[in-house]
Amino acid sequence: MVQPLTRLRETPSQTAGPYVHIGLMPTYAGNPGSVEKEVGTSPITEAAKGERIEITGTVSDGTGWVLRDAMIESWQADAEGLYAGQEGADPGVPGFCRFGAHAETGLWTLSTIKPGTVKLPDGRVQAPHIALWIVARGINIGLMTRIYFEDEEEANAADPVLMRIEQRPRVETLLAKKTGDGAYRFDIRLQGEGETVFLDL
Amino acid sequence: MTDAGRLIPRDRTAHPDPYDPGYKTSVLRSPNQALLSMESTPTEEWGPTFGHDQLGPLDNNLILNWTKGEAPAVGERILVHGHVLDELGKPVPHTLVEVWQANAGGRYRHHKDTYFAPLDPNFGGCGRTITDENGYYQFMTIKPGAYPWPNRGNDWRPAHIHYSIFGHSFGQRLISQMYFEGDPLMRYCPIFHTVKDRGQLDSLVAPLDMTMSRPLDYLTYKFDIVLRGRRQTMFENKPEGL
Ligand SMILES: [Fe+3]
Q1: What SS3 class is residue A20?
Q2: What is the pLDDT, as a whole number, of residue B3?
Q3: pTM of the predicted protein model
Q4: Which residue(s) pair with A76 in the sheet?
Q5: B83 is catalytic
Q6: How far is the CA of B161 from the centre of ligand 1 (A)?
Q7: B166-220 pLDDT, tens per residue?
Q8: ipTM
Q9: Which domains are assigned to chain B?
């Protein structure tokens, strides 16, 4: 016999269900005032340093149907690549945001600043990116992915996560397309053709 | 917080499969492709933090928070409490715990919920709290009712409370549901049974905790939550292979 490993197992995930917004985005759900102060209403404050950008997109299922009931969370670094809590991070960039799709169009929008490159402890550098976590009815465990930017070619080419993607055409699914000055488009496909690369870490 | 090491890779066998035909909506909303494996990076090792200054005095009392204390919600009064721990058994202090639920009749305050159980004018169904320095949390609420939902012919959700927990890094993010000891509907619920491991399933069921129940006032249920842990070794943060 061996000594027992006294480890706990992570609590299993369960779907966020169709009513996730009444709990996490009550104003969006039509229940303002449910809690004193909602969290994740914007990833930046007025004082944030860096280029203002707006990312718009959709979340679609395996038939291409655009979801209206997903909730997305984003988490990003400041313009210098530092996360809130790290020494020297821009206090104007809390970095965390929650958003949902428009009830009719299914479009979501994230207004933020473009993050900087993020250094890894071993010296490698991650291209500018925004981490996303997607939950909805029918999603049994939240899906993690990242938004990269198509106009960061050089940094993207050296990004350790993008480099791990064996099927090179799939890299495209993580690149936000530039649609105008400071405007990007990023569509998330949960399944099927053009399926977004989701992360397992 | 300081750099506390890489996240322990997520054990996917602890969780439901994304694709589970018993839960029909998952069929078109689950990836077909394998997920891309990677080690955590600072992106996942850091995360948003929330302080007590963001909480209102009634945020952790769903019996009173919708009416701001004017009138209580209808239902069986309960206290739910427990600890948030990580895989190594360490408490997770100062982390945001958010909950949402149906009212005592099984109806959500949501425009898409058309179940004909009535809305309770005194119940919103949304609350939150922050764990203390020992990872302990508690909140007051009413026991939610079971409700039917369109899936297979006659599917009902057992009574449950939805949970959202942050931990201290974005990679620890977790949403789950708490169930109540003894509810016969658990046996039939395809969402509950997306979790296939018996021990893991049991970990979603909160026991009645009579020692913490208050006579002539409320019953208590205990629900502990385990988040992913982080490795801490002297060999971290060196270039690969060295
Ligand atoms: Fe529910």
Answers
A1: helix
A2: 55
A3: 0.96
A4: A130
A5: no
A6: 7
A7: 999 999 999 999 999 999 999 999 999 999 999 999 999 999 999 999 999 999 9
A8: 0.97
A9: 19-24+40-239 (2.60.130.10)
